[in-house]
Amino acid sequence: MKILPPRTAHRGAPRGVGALLRDSLELALDGLATYAALVVALMLPLGTACVWIIIRFGLTSARAVRLAWEAGQSGRLLAIGAVSAALFAASLLFNAAKYLDLDARARNAPLGAEEAMRRGAGLILPLAAVTVLDMLAILAGLLLLVVPGVVALLRFLLVAQALILENRRGLEAFRRSNEIMAAHVGKVVGNLFVMIVVMAASDMILKFGAVLGVVALMLLLRPPNALVIPFAVAASALFLFLRFLVGVWSSAFKTLLYRDLAALHPAAPAA
């Protein structure tokens, strides 16, 4: 699969949205086993535990925090904080490992799950830092005026890709994102809007299929009451697994889009 470099194949112009959708789907499917392993290792255990708590006790994270705060249960608050931090770290590692393998796989040099996680682990703190800075910049813009917040959102849309794919750390990631977005804001926003619509449609299909499947199996198997909750948790875990896998398509799309645009704006190698 020869997806990169794009400039030779596309005469110096970035791919159109149709070609990006096709190539990114091919890229995601090529590494399906790797991304399934990443989902199982990083996202499924904590995600399934959270689903079990919601189904078993009817507690969302916000409600759990509120109840623990009102009851003065500092130990429970610490436990909720620890689980939230673990989920945040796992999601950062998952995204870093996923993008690293997608980028390498597009150049016919896939990393595999283990190597992608090893390399991605070194990006957890930088990713957390730029994520917080990005949120603060957007929030500050929205508090001052709506327009600055929207501008910040657009200009910093590619910060994570700049960090992971080009090893741009800290403010350099923001500068790189700003440079590319300033020249191609219409291309990026338009293409990502199409991908968002595709992902929303895929999510609706998955949800409909999951609900239909669970109802059909419940009617067919008629599990005893004691097994209803485990059955529902298992079905939810399967849905989460498939949802994360489908999301890899979106990440592959962003990887190829970023590489197409970055090739038009060569920058000095990152330190």
Task: Give a verbal description of the structure.
With 271 residues, this protein is an all-alpha fold. It has one domain. The protein has eleven helices and no strands. The protein has helices spanning 6-9, 17-30, 32-57, 61-70, 74-106, 113-121, 124-144, 146-155, 159-166, 171-221, 225-263. Helix 5 crosses helix 11 (225-263) and helix 10 (171-221) packs antiparallel against helix 11 (225-263). The longest helix has 51 residues, at 171-221. It is globular and about 60 Å long. The model is unreliable at 5-10 (pLDDT under 50).
Low-confidence stretches: 5-10
Q: What is the count of structural domains?
A: 1
The pLDDT mean sits at 80
How many helical stretches?
11
Distance between the termini: 30 Å
Number of strands: 0
**If you compute it from the alpha carbons, what radius of gyration comes out, rounded to the nearest whole angstrom?**
21 Å
> By helix and strand content, what is the structural category?
mainly alpha
| Relative strand content | under 5%
State the shape.
Answer: globular
H/E series: HHHHHHHHHHH
Major sheet, described briefly?
none
Helicity, as a percent range? over 70%
Task: Note the main attributes of this structure.
271 residues; mainly alpha; 0% strand
Quick overview:
This protein is an all-alpha fold and 271 residues long. It is built from 11 helices and no strands.
Element layout with pairings:
Layout: H1 6-9, H2 17-30, H3 32-57, H4 61-70, H5 74-106, H6 113-121, H7 124-144, H8 146-155, H9 159-166, H10 171-221, H11 225-263
